[in-house]
Amino acid sequence: MAETEITYRDALRQALQDAMRADDTVVVIGEEVGAYGGAYGVTRDLITEFGAGRLIDTPISEPAIVGVAVGAAMTGLRPVAELMYVDFLGLVMDQLANQAAKIRYMFGGQIGVPMVLRTQGGTGRSAGAQHSQSLEGWIMHTPGLRLAMPATAADAYHLLRHSLTLPDPVVFIEHKSLYTRKERVDLDAEPTPWGKAVVRRQGNDLTLVTYSRMVHVALAAAEQLAKQDISVELIDLRTLNPLDMATVIASVERTGRAVVVSEGPLTGGVASELAARIGEECFDYLQAPVIRLAGEDIPIPVSPDLESASIPTAALIVATVRRMLRR
Amino acid sequence: MTPPDATPGPARANTRLPELYRTMRRIRTFEERVAELYARGLSAGSMLHLSIGEEGAAAGVAAAMRPEDSFTTHHRGHGIFLARGADPARMMAEIGGKEAGYCRGKGGSMHIADMALGHLGANAIVGGGIPHVVGAGLSYKRLGTDAISVAFFGDGAMQQGLLYESMNMAALWDLPVLFVCINNQYGMGTRIDRATRSIEFDRRAEAFGLAAAMVDGEDVEAVHRTAQALADGARGGKPGFMAISCFRFFGHGRMDKSPYRTAEEEATGRKRDPVSRARDALLSQGLNDAAALDALDAGIAREMDATIDFTAAADAPAGASMFRDVFGPGEPEPEPLQSRLDRILADA
Ligand SMILES: Cc1ncc(C[n+]2csc(CCOP(=O)(O)OP(=O)(O)O)c2C)c(N)n1
Ligand SMILES: [Mg+2]
User: Fold this and answer.
1) Inside any domain, residue B338
2) How far apart are CA B23 and CA B36, in angstroms?
3) Is B161 within 8 Å of A63 when comparing Cβ atoms?
4) How would you classify the pairing of strands A55-57 and A206-210?
5) CB B245 within 8 A of CB B216
6) For ligand 1, what atom is nearest to the CA of residue B126?
7) Cβ distance A152 to A279 under 8 Å?
8) Which one of B136, B188, B197, B345 counts the least CB within 10 Å of its CB?
9) What's the CATH fold of domain A4-185?
10) Distance between CA A14 and CA A162 in Å, rounded?
């Protein structure tokens, strides 16, 4: 078994490198993706192998970066556009939501937009209200966009590789606090399937449903709960579109209780959507209300104390689960 | 700057005026039939933007393009698409929201597209389609083809930031791209002098390093010459920009009765008519006689009449097609609301 230790960041770089070797039409377009190596280092050194013609540095023009990727994707390239921070979605939302997401449908299925928009989000670096958000809800709310949010290096690798084979636009949101996370990866293991959630931990008392960095927070909570003889099942969704509700439903029907955990703001967000679906689909099995643990409905504050208190913690998950089980 | 059209026109024997006239007449007549389609209640909605008065721009630029070239248009793009070879019946059917239309009735007037003719899409977002041609230019350069990509947009988009991001990238990367502004003097009810202090649009493009020109859209041959020079440059990796001045003869959309401009202004504006000017030129230069042109026009009228009959008789898209093509072939379709309800409330 070929095991190796790799960071989330290096797994992403490896995915880009392998995809670019396998497919000449893959190009990376974005700010500082070339010689600088990407603001978070994901494209470091790729320019040495692939040159400036495929690691295309752009001016600071986010709407055009995405718009150019749309046009390139329609005419024979497979662009990976990089948006330095998901917080800049506000600038590109027209090209993403009104153009990329709708072109196949509006044009009656004539053509798709096979592009990947790589970006990163989330808290953890005191980057403040304009550089720390979790805006996946905006994407999930838009028909026509795929959405991947890997929690592990292995998933980061395989989901990015898979994204670069899909016929439709994929928004690929990395978590800025995961880049340096190291993980032992089995290189011979089965690739992560696209659109399938994974049960990260099996349990019987309650189902935790989450994705991205919150997977690790929830895992820590599950371990603490296990010491208190509470057995929770933990589901990592991995992709939010497609959304693998079958795995979630099967689990909740067995445990009868569900907590959804998301770093994004509570109201109108991913956690709310998941809770609503579980409520509709599993009503007859539920022994308690589906609880949403999500980001507070506030801009993200800079102070590390406030920042970390503004999103769900392992302690909060533990306390919430115990209250739900009256233990 | 020296406008490319300062050079004398081609020898009369080689003139493309007859062909340009025919294209313009077809556009004019098609747009008149679009108005009729709406009046007869056969159109999908009223957001129909006629390009009457702008035929010189569409015909002149389109004639400078090659079959392999691609383009995007703004919401007033019927004429451009027609000039690039569209089948007017399928266009009309799309405008009527019918399955036989170019986009199976899902795009309509403002989102019509056809990959076979290089139409990467009309756009209902002002400026929305402009960066797509830069992306296409990037593809053509990288894939080593000879094609260029042309963005058509209105004077309204001249005040959109995305245009300048796009021009900058096209120039920076030496892309085979042409930006074409059809300045019909109005963005909805706002005349251009109420939208900007500077209408020397070519200077804006030159500032980004593009080859740029301004041309009178009433003179279709001048438009064609200018477009040809700029398209040739773009094909060689020097992106271009041209602003074509014309007058929007009618309201913005079908509901607009133009309360923001006077009857005199409209009467004066409508004298800037590229179609009648070309007709006069054909007659005065002895290239056609009146009877021949009348016969041509009559044939076009019959062709365009038939597009309405075709649309009226065409089928609406089947209901189930609503869920089709959200994602690519083979991908599961979104679950319809009704089937979700039936599943969740199965016992109720
Ligand atoms: C981003 C955006 N803003 C506003 C509108 C509403 N709108 C539609 S057409 C139009 C005027 C556009 O003027 P111009 O670009 O000159 O094109 P024209 O209609 O004259 O052909 C406006 C404001 C829109 N569709 N998109
Ligand atoms: Mg206008």
Assistant:
1) no
2) 20
3) yes
4) unpaired
5) yes
6) 26
7) no
8) B197
9) Rossmann fold (3.40.50)
10) 13
Closest residue by Cα to atom 6, ligand 1, is B126
CA–CA distance, A181 with A195 (Å, rounded to integer)? 23
Residue B288: give its domain's CATH number: 3.40.50.970
CA distance A92 to A86: 10
What is the 3 state secondary structure string of B156-196?
A: HHHHCHHHHHHHHHHHHCCCCEEEEEEECCEECCEEHHHCC
Residue ranges in chain B modelled with pLDDT below 50: 1-11
In whole angstroms, give the CA distance from residue B79 to residue B182. 12
Within an 8 Å CB–CB cutoff, is residue A128 touching chain B?
no
B209 torsion bin: left (phi>0), alpha (psi -120 to 50), beta (else)? left
A198-325 has which fold? Answer: Rossmann fold (3.40.50)
What pLDDT score was predicted for residue B15?
87
A110 to B149: CB separation less than 8 angstroms, yes or no: no
Residue whose C-alpha is closest to residue B211's, from B174, B182, B244, B261? B174
Average pLDDT (A90-108) is 98
Q: Where are the domains of chain A?
A: 4-185, 198-325
Residue B180 sits at φ, ψ, to 5 deg, of -125, 110
Rounded to 5 degrees, what are φ and ψ at A293? -110, 115
Asked if the C-beta of A79 comes within 8 angstroms of chain B's C-beta atoms, the answer is: yes
Does a structural domain hold residue B347? no
| Close Cβ partners of A96 (under 8 Å, ≥ 6 residues apart) | A66, A89, A117, A139, A142, A145, A169, A171
Say how many C-beta atoms besides its own lie within 10 A of residue B60's C-beta. 30
Cα B30 to Cα B52: distance, rounded to the nearest angstrom? 10
- The verdict on residue B341 lying in a domain is no
Both tokens of A299, joined, read 């801009």
Residue-wise pLDDT tens digits, A24-65? 999 999 999 999 999 999 999 999 999 999 999 999 999 999
Specify the pTM.
0.95
- pLDDT tens for residues B37-81? 999 999 999 999 999 999 999 999 999 999 999 999 999 999 999
ipTM summary value: 0.93
- What CA–CA distance (Å, rounded) separates B13 from B103? 40
Count structural domains, chain B: 1
Provide the pairing of β-strand B186-187 with B190-191: antiparallel
A116, B120 contact by CB (below 8 A): no
Cα–Cα distances (Å) from A176 to A123, A132, A223, A269, in that order, read 7, 9, 24, 20
Chain B, 96-135: which have a CB under 8 Å from a chain A CB?
Answer: 101-107, 111, 113-115, 120-121, 123, 125, 128-135
Q: Which residues contact B136 (CB under 8 A, 6 or more apart)?
A: A71, A72, A74, A75, B70, B120, B147, B149, B177
In three-state secondary structure terms, B30 is helix
* Residue span of the structural domain in which B14 resides: 4-317
Q: Cα(B185)–Cα(B269) distance, rounded to whole angstroms?
A: 10
Which residue has tokens 């990407």? A38
B157 lines ligand 1 (CB under 6 A): yes
Average pLDDT across chain A, whole number: 97
Q: In residues, how long is chain B?
A: 348
